[in-house]
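Hey, can you fold this one?
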Amino acid sequence: MQFVLHIGTNKTGTSSIQRAFFENREALKERGVIYPLTGLEPETPAHHHLSRVLRGRRADELGMEPAWRDYFVREIREYDTCVLSSENFHTIPNPDCVANLLPKKRTKVVVYLREHATYMISWYQQAVQSRNTAMDLPEFVDAFFISFTELVDRWAKVFGRKNVIVRQYDRRTLKNGDVVADLASIVQPGLESVFENDDFAFNQSVAGNLLFTKRLLNCFITKSESLSIANEISAMVHLDPTFKGKIEVDQSVVKRAAFLAKNDRITLKKRYGLDLIPRHEGIEGSLYPDMSRLKQDIETIRAECKRRNFKADEYFERMFSAL
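Sure. Predicted structure:
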């Protein structure tokens, strides 16, 4: 049996990949490919729990059976290829723990990378929406800059350079301009045909004053409380066109990210043949914040929380009581 381990990174179509492979499990089985249920997080079709238990979390804490390894082996043994996907894998500091489950010589590790500035900005929007990040974008870029080379090196050291596939997340370089088709073609030539008639675009980014309101709220809630209302925030993007998509980013922030990534880009190209062309111009999008309508938008968001009995309404009460 061969294994394909998709490790992310985040903000590179991971949710689309996971939903596509999960919802086409039966069609994939007919091709000898299994996307196992073992290790899936209950709320998402991703192997987040598998990444956590391999990293050292207790199976019972995650709601997994103590004999999860036995279940995993039985589930996959009749198939030629096993596909696993979780962006949590790319955060593992030592992939040796993964090699305890997946044989090094029969495992392909696939990682998608996007240009540094757009990655950091998209990641920032996600962090504000689903975590309790309250810093502004320039602070976030400086605090959480990630070296892609160090990330790939960790996995190449354990699984071997030839078994680590590094791909650029860019429609111009992806198979059929689509990340789902691209990964499918890596798993098995021609497998992308399974997904031809499906549209798995997913996870619209929160933007504008909805994102800024959540950032304000983050000052008054914990990380776990923020996680508990992440879906509620996403559910309100329909309230206004400016509440979803890109945020406006000044050129100076983009250039700062490009400057921080200079050595990383050089090494990536030299070591892995990946040429991430840096972005230098600013990004057009929703104002963040749009002060001319912030008060009105906050009232709209609060009214929607009350109407739908969202838990976030409780946290808004906490915030305004403290002000």
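The longest strand covers residues 107-113. Let me know if you want another pass with a different chain boundary.
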